[in-house]
Specification:
By secondary structure, the protein is of the alpha/beta class. The protein is 39% helix and 16% strand. The protein contains eleven helices and 16 strands. Strands 2, 3, 4, 5, 8, 9, 10 and 11 form an eight-stranded mixed β-sheet that branches. Strands 6-7-12-13-16-15 form a six-stranded mixed β-sheet, with helices on one face. A hairpin with a 3-residue loop joins β6 and β7. The relative contact order is 0.17.
Length: 426
């Protein structure tokens, strides 16, 4: 068979394929597994009860259930859900949002697959636009969605601010943040996947101003952020204007299986996304939007985030940090300041092996993490720091989390001990 250049997009070594294959291909019969790598959210009882209640209401309400399963939505998405969401956002935040500013997609990955190619790539015969990530590390799933033979991404390395003896935080290097004429959009996640970093209000204001001045959109990936699921542990406010493309998801509310992404943007962007939905998939799925329309319309979704989702993750984050620091007190570990999302970002300074080697050693023992170098899209330089970090999810059951962190500490300690032994022998 002779494949086209398009087939090159589906590299079997891509980070996102590795992540999802690990997530869905684990054999539970091969021994205990600690799934600390994938993005599965926690199964929080309070959210599960709310979804079961909403499902029962659908089942009891005439033919609502049958209609949800047996009919297509419009290419823009479920109209009742879109109306409910636009009402919630305009009422709660005063945003000038109406139904024409919202589109539903088949998950955030689908959203970005379209958005990045709307603003990054060939323009006419001679001009080429790129997507700028002002701060890396960034989401692993961005890297492989650009179509064509030329990368559409460019990124800035972060400034590192040390916090205490064991912590640190990435900061946007504002002095280097200068979008050139070839930049078609600026994009960042808030909170950041993989680090849990929340860019400061000042950093965000600078990026909003720069984007507006250059006439390019600012794409905000809030799959873990505000207004929902609001897994944010530091002061921050949800923001939107017509120059911002805000991307949301139902996944981290505990619904990854329904594959529902949401894009809030100016009308021309929504029209293009609607066309992409029709061409690539006819219409987005309607299970997720139908299931949550009631709690969106009533505003209960924000209350659940505030009282159920965020407290659960905040408590689990601190537990994971305490366990890791206790187990690895003798190891040169720094943990990125946990400001949100569902991951911790471990930096082993001077790690004698690459994070990819560490990933493979851990996987052989049934512990799944993600090697750090996958999270630097658009970085062309060699930076050792990229190979000294791993992403660790703390959404797993506590028993799995404790076991996984113990195995990580053992393998990292072995790597440092081997290095010290070689130095002593010289």
């Amino acid at each position: 068979m002779k494949f086209t250049n398009f087939a090159k997009q589906f590299d079997p070594d891509s980070g996102i394929l590795q992540l999802m294959s690990d997530l869905g291909g684990v054999d539970p019969h091969k021994g205990p597994i600690s799934m600390l790598g994938g993005g599965n959210p926690a199964m929080i009882p309070g959210m599960e009860r709310a979804y079961r209640r909403e499902m029962n209401l659908l089942l009891e309400n005439g033919r609502s259930f049958e209609s949800m399963l047996g009919a297509y939505d419009a290419p823009v998405g479920n109209l009742a859900f879109i109306e409910a969401l636009s009402g919630l956002l305009s009422e709660q935040y005063g945003w000038p949002v109406n139904a024409r500013n919202i589109a539903v997609t088949n998950g955030s990955q689908s959203s970005f697959s379209v958005l990045f190619n709307l603003f990054g790539g060939q323009v006419g015969d001679s001009r080429f636009q790129r997507i700028l990530f002002p701060l890396t590390p960034e989401y692993i799933g961005y890297s492989d969605v650009g179509l064509g033979d030329r990368s559409i991404f460019t990124s800035n390395l972060p400034q590192i601010e040390y916090r205490g003896d064991r912590g640190f935080k990435y900061k946007v290097d504002l002095d280097r943040l200068d979008p050139g004429e070839d930049i078609g959009a600026i994009c960042l996640s808030r909170p950041t996947n993989p680090t849990g970093n929340v860019v400061t209000n000042r950093e965000l204001d600078v990026m909003r101003k720069l984007a507006a001045e250059r006439g390019i959109p600012l794409i905000l990936d809030c799959a873990y952020g505000q207004p929902f699921p609001d897994i944010v542990f530091t002061p921050a406010e949800p923001v939107w204007d017509r120059n911002i493309i805000l991307c949301l998801s139902l996944s981290k509310l505990g619904l990854p299986g329904v594959r529902t992404g949401i894009v809030i943007a100016d009308e021309p962007v929504i029209e293009l996304l609607t066309g992409a939905n029709a061409i690539f998939s006819l219409a987005p799925g309607r299970f997720g939007p139908t299931l949550v329309s009631g709690i969106v319309k009533s505003g209960e979704i924000l209350k659940l985030c505030r009282e159920v989702v965020r407290p659960w993750y905040r408590e689990r984050s601190q537990l994971a940090i305490d366990i890791a620091n206790d187990l690895m007190a003798d190891i040169p570990l720094r943990i990125h300041l946990s400001e949100g999302a569902i991951f911790l970002w471990f930096w082993f300074e001077g790690l004698p092996i690459s994070s990819e080697t560490l990933y493979r050693r851990l996987k052989s023992r049934g512990v799944y993490v993600i090697a750090g170098h996958h999270f630097f899209p658009g970085i062309e330089c060699q930076w050792r720091h990229m190979h000294e970090c791993i992403r660790v999810s703390y959404a797993a059951p506590e028993e799995d989390l404790r076991r996984g962190l113990a195995v990580i500490s053992e393998e990292v300690r072995i790597a440092y001990d081997d290095q010290n032994s070689k130095i002593s022998a010289q």
